Amino acid sequence: MRNSRGCHAYVWTAFRKQRLKRGFRLRQLRLEEYVLCYVAEGSGEITVNGKKHGIEARTLIMLTPAMRIDELSVPSGPLQMYRLHYTRIDAASPAGGKQAAAPGAQKRLAGEAAGAEVFPVASASAFVTKLEELYRLGQEADECLHLRAQSLFYDLLATACEERSARAKGGDSSVAATIDYMKKHFREALDLGALPKLAGLTPSSYCRAFKRAVGMTPGEYLTQLRMEEAKAMLSSSSSANRVKDVARSVGFSDELYFSRLFKKREGLSPQIYMKQAGQRVAIASKLFLQDHFLAIGIQPIAAPSFPNYFPTRTGFPVYLQQRLRGTKALNAERSITPQEVLPLSPDVIVQIDTGQEQGQGEWKKLGETFMFNGYLSWHEYQRQIGTVFNKENQAQRIIDHVQKVEKAAREALLPVTRQGEWTIVRVLENEVRLYGTEGHALTDLFYDKLGFQPDPHVTHASYKPDALMELVRIDPERIILFWSEKEDVERLWPNPLWQSLRAVRENKVYYPESKNWDPWGPLGREYMIEQCTAYFLRAIPSI
Predict the structure, then answer these.
(1) What is the pLDDT along the chain (543 residues), one digit of tens a residue?
(2) How far apart are CA 27 and CA 34, in angstroms?
(3) Which of 234, 314, 390, 495 would be 274's cystine partner, CB 3.0–4.6 Å?
(4) Model-level pTM greater than 0.85?
(5) What's the CA gap between 476 and 488, in Å, rounded?
C-alpha cells in the first residue's frame, strides 16, 4: 500500500556535540541540509533569515535547507549544544537518492517552516538521553547498531514534531511570552488571571499549555521564581529587618504569609535559613560532598572537581554544573592543599578522614576543619552533615524523597528486571573490574534498590580487579558496562576471551552513557536513577 503522505525518508548525515566558549560568534552561514539543534546548557542568541531568537537550556532549534544563519553568538558563558544534520530521501525517484528541492516540497518535513522554529522541550531529560544514545551508536561500525541508531533518529524527529505540534495547538509561543513576562515582573503584584488574556487563550487552555511548557502551574512557577530570589537575597546579607525587606522585594506584601510559605517549602524559617546560609563551607575532599550540601540548601564556596573526567568547563558533573555557579572548583585529580582554600576565608572546611589521602595531618591542624569518617553510605553522610549544620529535618526529607524515587523507578523497571540476571563490569585501560553484589553504592542502587537480579555466581563484595578470566568462568547472561571509556571498550572488544562470553555473543552487553551517573549523593543518585530508567526502558523490550 502506498503511503498517502508521500514516499520519502530521512537519513541523518552528521552529529556533533559542541561547547561554544563565551564570546563565540558565527556569521553568515547558508544551510544545505536539515539541522536539529538542542541546547543542553548555557544561553545565547541566533538570528535566522533576519529574525533574532534567544536560546537557552532545554531549547530545540529546527532549521531547514536554504535557511540563512545570519549570526550565532554566546555573549555570557559557555553554551553546550547537540547538532544533528539530516537529509530527505525520495524513495520514489529512480535512484532513490536526494530529492531536488521543489517549491513547497520541504513543507512535508516535520518541523519545516518559513523561518527557524525555536521552542523549549517539555521532556528535556528524555530528549537528552535519546541524543546521547544516538551519539554513542553513531560511533559504532556494527550494522545492527546502525539500524538501531536510525530507529532512534526517527524517534527523535517524531518527538520534536510532537513537541512542536503540541505547542502550536496550545498556543505555547504565546505562553513563552508570558513566562518571559513573569521572569521580568515576578517582584511585582502580578495578576495571574490576566496571563491567559495576554497569551490569547482561554484560562483552561492556558493552564494546560503552561504546565506542558514548564511542568507546573502558573501559580507554582511564580512562587518558585520568588522563592529562588528570596533564598539568594537571604544568603547575601544579614541586615536588620531582612525578612520583611526580602518578602516585599520578591512580591509578597504579607511577611507572615511569606514566612509560612518559605518554611513549608524549605523546611525552616527565613530567619534560620539566613543564618545558616551565611556559613562559608569549603569542601576539600576528593568525594563529592557538594551534592549533599546543595540538597539541604548550603552552597559551598569551594568543592572538588575532576576536569579531565567530566567534560564541563569546571570539571563538575553536568547535573551540578548550574547549581555550583560561583563555587570555586578544586582540582581533586591531585592533592588539594590548604593554600588553595584558606584565601577564601571559609568558616568551615570539610574533609573526609579516609586514612589514605596525603596531607590530612596538615588539615587536622586547622581549627576550622571538620573531619567526617570515610566511606559511609550516602544517607549516613547526609545525616551527619545535617546534624553538624543543624539541618536534620532537611537531611531526612531529602533521604525520604530519594527513597520514593528509588521505589517508583523499581516499579517502572519491572518489565526489564524480571527478564534475566545481570553482571556489572567496568572496563579500564589496563583491567576489567567485576563488581559484586554489595559493599558499593553502585551495586546497592542497581541490585537492592532498583531490583536488577545479580548473576548467582557473583558472590563477592565491592569489586574484583583484573577479572576477565573470572568473567569467562561465570559466563554471564547480561553485562552492563558502567563508567567505561569508549577507547577502552573498543580495545577490549576484539579480545577472544571477551568474544567468548555468552552476553557478547548474544548481543546482551549494555553500554549507557554513564560518565555522570553518581550514586554517592542524593542529587547524583536521583539523576542516575532517571537516566538509568530511561535507558533500560528503551533498550530492553518488555515481555
Answers:
(1) 344 445 568 888 889 988 888 888 887 888 889 999 999 888 889 999 888 888 888 789 999 998 989 899 998 778 889 999 999 876 554 444 444 333 333 433 433 445 788 877 766 667 888 888 888 888 877 788 888 888 889 988 888 887 676 555 545 567 777 888 888 889 888 888 888 887 777 888 888 888 766 767 899 889 988 987 887 777 664 444 578 888 998 999 889 999 999 888 776 688 777 766 667 899 988 888 999 998 888 889 999 999 998 888 899 998 898 888 889 999 999 888 888 888 888 888 888 876 555 555 667 666 567 777 766 689 999 998 888 887 888 899 899 989 999 998 999 899 899 888 999 999 999 999 999 998 899 999 999 999 999 999 999 999 999 999 999 999 999 999 999 999 999 999 999 999 999 999 999 999 999 999 999 999 999 999 988 998 888 877 654
(2) 18
(3) 234
(4) no
(5) 20
504-537 burial by CB neighbour count: b if 16+ within 10 A, else e?
Answer: beeebbbbbbbbbbbbbbbbbbbbbbbbbbbbbb
**Residue 220: partners with Cβ closer than 8 Å, 6 or more residues away:** none
Which residue type, as a one-letter code, is found at position 397? R
The residue count of the chain comes to 543
The Cα–Cα gap between 412 and 193 comes to 38
Which grid cell is 366? 586547622
Which of helix, strand or coil describes residue 454? Answer: strand
Q: Is 254 exposed, middle or buried (0-12, 13-18, 19+ CB in 10 A)?
A: exposed
Give the dihedral sign, CA 344/348/350/353: positive
